[in-house]
Amino acid sequence: MSKKQTNIVKAETTFESFSLISDYDIHLFKSGKHYKLHEKLGSRIVTHNGQEGTYFAVWAPNAKAVSVIGNFNYWQREKHNLHARWDQSGIWEGFFPDIKHGEAYKYVIHSNTGEILDKADPFSVFNETPPKTASIVWEPRYEWKDQEWLDQRKKTIGKPKPYSVYEVHFGSWRRKVEDGGRPLTYPEMAHELVPYVKEMGFTHVEFLPLMEHPFYGSWGYQLTGYFAPTSRFGSPEDFMYMIDCFHRAGIGVILDWVPSHFPGDAHGLFKFDGTYLFEHEDPRKGFHPDWKSYIFNYGRNEVRSFLISNAVYWLEEFHIDGLRVDAVASMLYLDYSRKHGEWIPNQYGGNENLEAISFLKEMNEVVYSMFPDAITIAEESTSWSGVSRPTYLGGLGFGQKWMMGWMHDTLHYFQLDPVHRKYHQNEITFSIMYAFTENFMLPLSHDEVVHGKGSLFGRMPGDEWRRFANLRLLFAYMFTHPGTKLLFMGGEIAQSAEWNHERSLDWDLLNYGFHKGVQDLVKDLNALYKSEPALYIHSFDQRGFQWIDYGDRENSVIAFQRKGENKNDLLIVVCNFTPEVRYHYRIGVPYRGQWKEVFNTDHKKYCGGGVSNGGLLATSPVKYHGQDYSVSLTLPPLAMTVLKLEKEISEFELEDIST
After folding, report:
1. Is residue 606 part of a domain?
2. pLDDT tens digit string along 234-259?
3. CATH number at residue 602
4. Which among 100, 228, 286, 377 could disulfide-bond with 279, CB atoms 3.0 to 4.6 Å apart, if both were Cys?
């Protein structure tokens, strides 16, 4: 919570009981329209009748009794009883002056099924460090210093801008070898990751989920504490400090968010009050067969309030710049990863999850109405139409969508020995057929470097030189392809081993020239991307792209234009996907004049071979590729070359030159 919201709260007293919750709150909650539920439920330090203590409120509609336990009552279940509200809302509440800031607690829920359950607070903002599972009474106090960043964020609403994301798993980016190999804390990460991301030129960092999760090996995707940054790395204030540091360095922060499923840990949301409260009771709708986890009941209004409030919470209280929504495809389809007979059709007989679709649309509408300068990004792997289109046009309302088809096709193509690539030209060109149907982000994500797939570098074919050249070409192709960019940590240093969440990246690799060359290449690609409007002004628009030639299968070469607002922005990109140097390779160009090579992945600074097009390249009146002019190039092996018009020559200038 921000400082302005952590002042002493004066609770209102109704005729029934002491409460922080109004009748209007209950109305919004029960109708699924309470988008700041975190300000009402959970534990809050308040002053009542001159006494400071803690107010608790928890939703458990099928409980017979609820109490609070902790060190303050020696974990005895009958000492601090909550009272059910009179309005049939299912909320239990109570105020206790002897419970202070920093106290660990749980709710004891006596279910109407006869069970007695010890549960963590679903709205806790701070939890004990796993494997401990209690919640902690906590009122975060932090003085934000990122107003300049937030103001700038508002000024750029709707304006095209470069969007290059560095995806990070917090616990394994870098570790303290001198301290037993432990992960960094939030403040330590602020001091080490922030300058690194800034130096590398990424515009944003994206963290795999940092909400509280009991099993570290889930990478954060099995959440129990939806409102709590994991305490493994520090306090909520420490987390705020890290985000603040990113913002003051001009770097945005995106969090992975998981509204698709949750684990069955005894202290978590599963059967919270002894019944299927947050999840569906029928396993055909409520159990996820892939992840052995439980699916939210998106048709229940109170659950919708819980989830949408959670999205708002991270954006509001922690100044997060965006949410990457995990596993959207699993939410959209009732038969996702299910066999015949294992799912229930919707009311029209289809496989679309109408309740989840409605939820996603409402979530995006709420987020963009409250935070128009933030972004939501969908990890959605199917051909569902309109994922990143506004809801008023029938879309789901996301700001961007991961381009999973591009990722799979491109990686498969690059794994091929170059001698076979001419038979797979369509795999490297097909993405343009649908590149502008959504606002696509190109991901080379964590999912592509685990589970036996190997690292990106490890999947490149050939000897050492060819593998590094292929990797440099892969990254350059991504940065010049339409769409925004995402690269998982380690890719930028050509990590050779598959990602392991239990250990640090192999930073010692940077002592070797080839690895340092890849890092320098990524740094320069970010600089090129941010300095050339043609690469981002029309990221999601056909106007920003035009093929020169996609059909040279025999040579495994493609060439295309990236366009900005005028001819001075125009870039020409030529990719040679073979290890052969191609001399006198002619391509058509739209303007007569002198062209300059502004980027070359075979440059010696990247440990390439140094084959280049030095000096200025003059156009020829030879018509080619449907253009009136052409230029003859030398194509370096397994490399990308980028050309830019240095000087246009008019007909009159040409006559003067001839004279």
Report:
1. yes
2. 999 999 999 999 999 999 999 999 99
3. 2.60.40.1180
4. 286
Structure tokens at 287: 């159990």
Whether residue 632 lies inside any domain: the answer is yes
At residue 652, what is the residue type?
F
Contacts (Cβ under 8 Å, ≥6 apart) of 399: 322, 368, 375, 376, 377, 388, 439
CA angle (320 as vertex; 315, 325 as ends), nearest 5: 80
Q: Please give the Cα distance from 47 to 51 (Å, whole number).
A: 5
Domain membership flag for residue 141: no
Q: Whole-prediction pTM value?
A: 0.94
d(CA 386, CA 14): 47
In whole angstroms, what is the distance from residue 151 CA to residue 156 CA? 9
Annotation marks residue 552 as catalytic: no
Name the catalytic one among 302, 326, 355, 520: 326
> Mean pLDDT across the chain, nearest whole number?
94
pLDDT tens by residue, 364-395: 999 999 999 999 999 999 999 999 999 999 99
Identify the domain containing residue 568 by its residue range: 542-658
Known catalytic residue: 379? yes
Q: How many whole angstroms separate alpha carbon 621 and alpha carbon 629? A: 5
Residue 252 near residue 204, CB atoms below 8 Å: yes
Q: At what angle do helices 513-531 and 186-200 cross, to 10 degrees?
A: 70
Give me the helix-helix angle, 404-415 and 464-480, nearest 10°. Answer: 160
d(CA 279, CA 517): 49
Residues 6+ apart with CB under 8 A from 407: 442, 443, 444, 445, 448
Contact 455, 496 (CB under 8 A): yes
Would you state the structure tokens that stand for residue 516, as one six-digit string? 């340092």
Question: What is the reported pLDDT for 17?
Answer: 60
DSSP 398: -
> How many other CB atoms are found less than 10 A from the CB of residue 569?
18
**Cα(173)–Cα(189) distance, integer angstroms:** 9
- The confidence band for 4, taking pLDDT boundaries of 50, 70 and 90, is very low
What confidence category does residue 614 fall into, taking pLDDT thresholds of 50, 70 and 90? confident
Report if residue 559 sits inside a domain.
Answer: yes
Tokens for 551, please give them.
Answer: 């059909």
Nearest CA-CA partner of 638 in 474, 453, 490: 474
Of the listed 25, 121, 206, 379, which one is catalytic? 379
**DSSP readout, 41-82?**
SEEEEEEETTEEEEEEEEE-TTEEEEEEEEGGGTT-TTSEE-
Query: CB-based contacts of 349: which residues, under 8 Å, 6+ apart?
Result: none
